[in-house]
Amino acid sequence: MTHPTALILTALASGYRYGFDIMDATGLPSGTVYPALRRLQDARLVSSTWESERDAHDDRRPRRRLYVLTSEGQRAVADAEARLADARRLLGGQLRGDLT
Amino acid sequence: VSGIRGRLTRIWLRAVARLVPGNRRADWLEEWEAELDAHARIEAEDGSRRIHTRAWGALPDALYLWTREAGMRGWGRELRVVVRGLLRRPGFTAVALITLALGIGANTALFTVVHAVLLRPLPYSEPERLVRLWGTQSSERQLGGTVSYPDVHEVGARTSAFSAWAAFDEWRPAVGGEDGPPEVVSGATVNTSFFDVLGVRPALGRFFTSEEEGEGRELRVVIGWGLWQRRFGGERDLAGRTILVNGDAVEVIGVLPRDFETLRLEGRGWGAPEIWRTVATPPPFRSGRSWAGIARLSDGVTIEAAQAQVDAATAALEREYPEDNFGWGMNLVPIREQLLGDTDRVLALLMGAVGLVLVIACANVASLLLVRAVERRRELDIRIALGASRARLAGASMLEALVLAGFGSALGLGLAWLGVGTLAGRLTGILPRVDGIRISPAVAAFTVGVALLTALLFGVVPAIDAWLRSGRRSGSRVAASARGGSDGHESVRLRRVLVAAEVAVSVVLLVGAGVLVRSVEALYRVDLGMEREGVLTVRLHSAAFIDRSPEEAAALYSDLMGRLRALPGVQAAGAINILPLSGGFSCDGVTRDDQPPPQPGEGRCAEIRTMLPETLAALGVPLLRGRTTDEADHRADAPRVALISEEMAESFWPGEDPLGKSITIHEASWQVVGVVGDMRHFGPAGVTRPQAYLPAHQDPWGGVSYGMNLLLRGSSDPHALTPAVRRVIEEVEPGLGITTVASMDDLLGDSVADSNFRATLFGAFAVLAVLLAMVGMGGVVAYSVRQRTREIGVRLAMGAAPSRVSRMVLVEAARLVFAGAVVGVVAALLASRALEGMVFGVSARDPWTIGVALVLVALMGTLVSLLPARRAARVDPLRALAGE
Description:
By secondary structure, chain A is mainly alpha-helical. Chain A is 64% helix and 10% strand. By secondary structure, chain B is of the alpha+beta class. Chain B has 27 helices and 24 strands. The A-B interface holds A 18-20, 23, 29-35, 38, 42, 61-65 and B 30-31, 33-35, 37-39, 41, 53-61, 64-65, 68.
């Protein structure tokens, strides 16, 4: 998993759902975020739907596309976090404080 | 989004949206517009202006979707289709892969040799500045010879051409002996500057310092990596320890790195040195020319400028020492040329040959692919009708070629890996630097390159075929191919051209191989001036004679030869200082005693050999006039007598009788008592020169005390004598080591080994080429019969005799062979220049060889056409017509 992909997954897990919001949250350019979202969709880690007309109408703007983690995507994020935690534990003896 | 910025953004998005696949375009546009709109609102609130940069991101997004849809994903599917298609036709795939593997494998294997020998950098610092110094005699300028020790140093000191120089000479010590017998190894005596000149660093310890040279210094040695590993197990603490050298404890000061390539004295049957010592006593004789010189050119000095300086220095030496230096000059030879010689030409020739084999392999696979293309026309036409683009179809065809080339080269690399070990083993002693022959990353890269090239070569024809076809109006084609129409004629024509080309290339290679094989035969047929069958040669280890007086050495030989002659099966036994077929040039000055001494520069020389009684009888050299020497002549106190060769008689006494005349050789006077036949000392292709044979015990310059080479004439298999000879030597003197035992036939084999190697490898490539070409030809003829089944059926139904039908097929095959053969002969005549200088005793355009090549190709062509011809004769007319 590349660093941008990890960032995007984390942003999605934190509740960011629109493409441009993910850019704001991660600081990544649109030319990176969108292809990554397409790839994640192909890998079935992310799914997308249009938001309801009603929500858009309420905000008086066109409807936007929503991206959410699939259950597989959630597992992938959890796995990645678990691996990171393992790494922290392993390195904790020497690097306590640096990574926490 | 409003305003100009908004409009521009919308135009941009719509333009970029053209890249997005049609079925997703509307959704994609809506998403991007909505996002930008939402963002424009935020920007309006916080005043940020990032919307432009965000809009640029639409391009990578659209590109990604485009490549995924139209590009990579599509090609992935195509790849699966190709692989499945290949697996469905295992016969076709196997033939194509084996053909490619053989072609690519042979090329890769030979390239490992080219890479190791020619392309690998020499392991010296700035090797382009290193030169070997060769002695030249003005009377025979082209001959390279060794030089005298004082000359090397005086030329070095008198010019500014060299930044460093060194002399070196042969040394052959026995190493070890603490446990088990010592090993006689090749070594060198060098100046302490030797390793600095080369610019190498020790792998272990250090090299010599300038204080370690000269009289009274303790003997210390540097050893090679191979010897270190072999005898000392690669012990890291060897430097500083002592080892046994000729029975004495001697300190090893350093070990050379693994990739060091040693310099040897060519043409003395001397192996690559593995141990080095310094010069203890600088030889005072200017005329003793047994040394080799090496030098490093000063910074910025070209070899031409250096040669000019050296010429001036040797001219000065000639004036100062007219006695010893008349006519002697020095020739500078770049180290690369010295080490590699004409290897680059030989390898280029072989690489060309093996490249032609690959061309044939490619033609074969192209031909196979064309057959498939014809069979797949219907599929192709349907795809065209469904809207597949030209590029797509031509690309798919190339993809198939790439897949075949990829797997073929993987197999080829495997074959090369299997073959390289054997090849390297057989090349030792024939080519320099063969120890570096292995499959390296460079070799693998070469294979990949070759694979791409072959894919291009054999894939381009069917790809063009697909391209042209998809360009035509396709509607009628689908209908035509749906009817099973036979529009394979143009492809059959193309395949015939390919096969004729294969035959032509085979003829070229066969002629080349034939000429090379005939030159090896010619080399073996040369009259060497002796009877080589039945002669055994034994090199004795010269170190055993170092501490003996000439009298002791003479007594030892007398005892040894007496016992050898008494052995059953030995018809004659002698000994000579330099073995025939394995020596270098060593022209020594000769003057007639009845003429005034020659002016400097006008002296003449002859090859001088010293010998023991019965030597010429053992060699089978005929006595033409006078008498041969007998036991009475071979005593130190007997009057000095010499035998001379016929060429020497004619050159020194033209129109006179040399018998009874006196000559001066080695500062002593000798009476000519006999004239013997000319012997080819330097191998069948070497020159003959005036030769004189002197009884060794009478020679004031060393005689037998430098050790001799035994010559025994036995029965048909000289090697049968070896055990008895070894036993006798062990009885006479247990410390007398034997260096090598070889029959005269072995020595001849060694002297023609390079010709043999060229002929063998070229021959193997030619055989491979013919086999591949015949596989291709058989395929084309068989396919043509299958395609014409209906026509043949009609002919048979109309009453044609089956024999007539098979003749028709054979005639078609004969036309292919004929066309190929005509082109091949012309090409072979044109290519014959490549063989110049590599053939001996036969013309590179030898008509007899060309004839044999043609007969061979015709026979093979007939052979592979017989089966399809028989099948054609057995066509059942009813079935053939019903198959319609």
